[in-house]
Amino acid sequence: GPSLVRKISQHIIRYTADRVLVVSQCLAEQYQFDDRYCTLLPNGLRSDFTQAGKLDFAAKFQQRRILFVGSLKAYKGIEELLKIARHLPDMNFIAIFSCSDKELKRFVSNREMPSNCDLRSACADIEQQYCEAFALLNLSLPDACIESFALTVLEGMSSGCPCVVPLVGGHHDYFDQQSGLAVDARETVIVADFLQQLADDSVLWRSCADHAMAAVESYSAAAYRARVGGFLKSLDAQYASEIRAGGKG
Predict the structure, then answer these.
(1) What is the DSSP annotation of the chain?
(2) pLDDT at position 53, please?
């Protein structure tokens, strides 16, 4: 968020919190709390988010559906998405926005939309869209928005999608270039060329997909519950020790 808000939050947290949980190393570096207050506890997938067991890789590759999931905000790289779609008229782009029908209609009415781009204000089968996607785009513009974790990237990777991601953000705790491409979204030609390279090389595409899934195996809902459980157990033990030693609990 804005630097002023971050500074105010940091002062409040520093003087009121006994412990601070952050979801990524990127966030820990932004706030720079003392290590004794700060614990890295990465997010995990939703418990109802099924991972790669039912993926049809042949269909994913052949259909070449490029998926974008996010809010309908300029800093999310919406205009860049449309430019990339125009560069690749033979590929289908599906963009699912967290917005109202009215907001989406207003957005579309003010622009000339590429015919290969399907924009939706909601989606009842979002998990299926991930399962069928050829690749996932996260086009957030880092000078306007640095994502603290980028859950959509995690969901895409767990569904066997090579991903295009910003150069900075919390997703770099689990993403590397073997899972896709890290680039400034305004480099739309580079993004389009990368997607075309994947479409032209099934071996490269599958390698990225497999590496992406392997990289996020430890981010399942079960693994997240285990991390939280371990943190709470250690916290309980620490406070119990303080009480026995006569400290405050």
Answers:
(1) --HHHHHHHHHHHHHH-S-EEESSHHHHHHH---TTTEEE------TT---GGG--HHHHHHH-EEEEEE-S-GGGTHHHHHHHHHH-TTSEEEEEESS-HHHHHHHHHTS---TTEEEES--TTHHHHHHH-SEEE----TTT---SS-HHHHHHHHTT--EEE-SSSGGGGT--GGGEEE--TT-HHHHHHHHHHHHH-HHHHHHHHHHHHHHTGGGSHHHHHHHHHHHHHHHHHHHHHHHHTT---
(2) 64
Report the Cα 228 to chain-centroid distance in Å.
Answer: 20
pLDDT band at residue 54 under the 50/70/90 scheme? confident
What is the total residue count of the chain?
A: 249
Backbone φ, ψ for residue 188 (5° rounding): -65, -30
Gap between the Cα atoms of 39 and 19, Å rounded: 8
Question: Hey, what are 205's tokens?
Answer: 């595409």
Strands 135-137, 117-120: pairing kind: unpaired
Measured CA to CA, the distance from residue 183 to residue 165 in angstroms comes to: 6
- Is the predicted pLDDT of residue 122 greater than 90, yes or no? no
> Which of the four pLDDT bands, split at 50, 70 and 90, describes residue 78?
very high
- Check pLDDT > 90 for residue 158: yes
In this model, does residue 69 exceed pLDDT 70? yes
